[in-house]
Write a structure and sequence with these properties.
The chain has 451 residues and is of the alpha+beta class. The protein is built from 14 helices and 24 strands. A hairpin with a 6-residue loop joins strand 18 and strand 19.
Length: 451
C-alpha cells in the first residue's frame, strides 16, 4: 500500500463541498468573494477545534475567558492605531483594472508592472484601510460611524481591569477569547486561509515588566505542543522569528504550517510590551495600572499575545489529516491491475466531527430498528451518524472521508448475541462488542485511539 498526502488545495475544496465541510457563501447567487459557510460536518469540526483551544487555555488556573462585543466605541480603534495605521498600499492597473497590494506583489516590487497583464500603466500607491465601517443609529452621519472589529484583542485590553478585579487573579494572568473579526482584505484567497470574515482565538497574558522574555519563550513552547498534541505532524511546523517588528512589539514569532501552497503563518506569538494598555489609558483617561498589594508595586503590565485564526487552524488540521491509501488489486480472471484508493481524514479523535457511524448490514426492519436504537444510545455521549444506503464497503469509505474513528455494524447475529462489530478507522481492525458495553468501549477507544 502507498500512502499519499495532500498536494493540491483544490482536492480539499472539492472534498469539503461533497462531504459537507465547507460551502461557498451565497453559492446560489454566484457566491461572495472569500466568504465561506461551514456545513453539517464542518460546523461540528469547527466547534471541536474551538473547544480544544478553549479548554487548553481556560482550564488553566491563570487564564479567564471573555466574550466581548463585535461593535466597540470608535475611539478604541483610534487608540489602537487601526484608524490611522491599519492599511495596505493599493495599486490599480489602468489597463486590465486589476487591483493589488503593492507591498507583497513580486512583479510590482521588482518591475513595477501589473501581476495580471504585465502593464506598467498603473495608478499611484494609496493606503487602503482594512476595517469595515458601518453606522450605529438611525442617521448615517459622522457621529454614528462604528467599525466591525478587525481583531478580538482590543476587547481584552479595555476589559483588563474588569477581568482582573472580578476574578481576583494576580499577575501573571491571561484573558482568552474566541470571536468573529472582519478585514476588508485586498488579496484574500487559498480557500479558508485568508477570508474577509473569520474567527479568531486570541489570548493576552499580562505579566510584570522584566519577566516578559521568559513568558514569551514559554508560550512559544506551549503553543507548539498544542499542535503536536492534536496530531499535526512535527515536520510540517516551524517557527519564523520576525526581524521587522510592529510598532508595539518587542518580539514576535509565527508558528508556520506547511500548507500545499508552502509554509504560511498559522499562529502569531507576540511580546506587545505595554503599548496597548498605555494607549487606552491615554485615550480614555482611565487608569489601567496593576497594583500588587503584597509588594505595593504599581505598574502597567506587559502583554504576551497568542493569536490563531480558527478557520486557518481548521485548514491546517484538514490538510494534515488528508491521506490517500492506494492499493493495487489484480483481477483473477483478466489479470488486469487496478488501483483502489481509500481517502481518509485522519483527524485526532477529539477533533473528528463524527465519532461513530452506525451501519445496519441491510435495510430490513429487523436490522434498521435496533440500529437506530444503538444510534440513539451512542448519541447520548457522542456525535453519531447513521447510514443505511449503498454497500457496507461504500459506507465505510464515506465514514473514512469525514474522519470517523469508529464504525459500528449491526448484522443478522446482533439479535442473537446482543453484540455489534466495531471497525477502527486507522488500524482497520474489528472487534465484537456487546451493545450494553458499546458506549464504554467507544469512550475508551477515543481516549486511547493512537496507542
Amino acid at each position: 500500500m502507498v500512502v499519499k498526502t495532500l498536494q493540491d488545495l483544490n482536492t480539499l475544496v472539492s472534498l469539503s463541498k461533497r462531504r459537507g465541510f465547507v460551502f461557498q457563501s451565497s453559492e446560489i447567487y454566484g457566491g461572495l468573494g472569500s466568504c465561506w459557510d461551514y456545513g453539517p460536518i464542518g460546523s461540528i469540526l469547527k466547534m471541536n477545534v474551538k473547544r480544544a483551544w478553549w479548554n487548553a487555555m481556560t482550564r488553566r488556573s491563570d487564564i479567564v475567558g471573555l466574550d466581548a462585543a463585535i461593535l466597540m466605541h470608535p475611539t478604541v480603534w483610534k487608540a489602537s492605531g487601526h484608524v490611522d495605521g491599519f492599511s495596505d498600499p493599493l495599486v490599480d492597473c489602468k489597463d486590465c483594472k486589476t487591483r493589488f497590494r503593492a507591498d507583497n506583489t513580486e512583479s510590482y516590487l521588482t518591475k513595477k508592472q501589473c501581476p495580471q497583464c504585465g502593464s506598467k500603466n498603473l495608478s499611484e500607491e494609496r493606503n487602503f484601510n482594512l476595517m469595515f465601517k458601518t453606522h450605529m443609529g438611525p442617521l448615517e452621519d459622522t457621529g454614528s460611524v462604528v467599525y466591525l472589529r478587525p481583531e478580538t484583542a482590543q476587547g481584552h485590553f479595555v476589559n483588563f481591569i474588569n477581568c482582573q478585579q472580578s476574578s481576583r487573579y494576580k499577575i501573571p494572568f491571561g484573558i482568552a477569547a474566541i470571536g468573529k473579526s472582519f478585514r476588508n482584505e485586498i488579496t484574500p484567497g487559498n480557500f479558508i486561509f485568508r477570508t474577509r470574515e473569520f474567527e479568531q482565538m486570541e489570548m493576552q497574558y499580562f505579566v510584570k515588566p522584566g519577566t516578559d522574555e521568559g513568558f514569551f519563550n514559554e508560550w512559544k513552547e506551549r503553543r507548539l505542543n498544542f499542535y503536536l498534541k492534536f496530531g499535526i505532524k512535527k515536520d510540517n511546523l516551524k517557527f519564523h522569528d520576525h526581524e521587522k517588528l510592529a510598532h508595539y512589539a518587542r518580539a514576535a514569532t509565527d508558528v508556520e504550517y506547511k500548507f500545499p501552497m508552502g509554509y504560511s503563518e498559522l499562529e502569531g506569538i507576540h511580546n506587545r510590551s505595554d503599548f496597548d494598555l498605555t494607549q487606552h489609558m491615554k485615550f480614555s483617561g482611565k487608569s489601567l495600572e496593576y497594583f500588587n498589594e503584597a509588594t505595593k508595586e504599581k505598574y502597567i503590565p506587559y502583554v504576551i499575545e497568542t493569536a490563531v485564526g480558527c478557520d486557518r487552524l481548521i485548514l491546517a488540521f484538514m490538510c494534515d489529516a488528508y491521506r490517500e491509501e492506494v492499493t493495487v488489486q489484480k483481477d483473477e480472471t483478466t489479470g488486469k491491475e487496478s488501483e483502489d484508493i481509500r481517502i481518509v481524514m485522519g483527524f485526532h479523535p477529539e477533533i473528528a466531527p463524527i465519532k461513530v457511524c452506525v451501519l445496519p448490514l441491510s435495510k430490513k426492519e429487523e436490522l434498521t430498528v435496533p440500529a437506530m436504537k444503538i444510534r440513539d444510545q451512542l448519541a447520548e455521549e457522542f456525535d453519531v451518524q447513521y447510514d443505511e444506503t449503498a454497500s457496507i464497503g461504500k459506507r465505510y469509505r464515506r465514514a473514512d472521508e469525514i474522519g470517523t474513528p469508529f464504525c459500528v455494524t449491526v448484522d443478522f447475529e446482533t439479535a442473537n448475541d446482543g453484540a455489534v462489530t466495531v471497525r477502527h478507522r486507522d488500524k482497520m481492525t474489528q472487534d465484537r462488542i456487546q451493545i450494553s458495553q458499546l458506549n464504554t468501549y467507544v469512550a475508551n477507544g477515543l481516549r486511547n485511539f493512537n496507542t
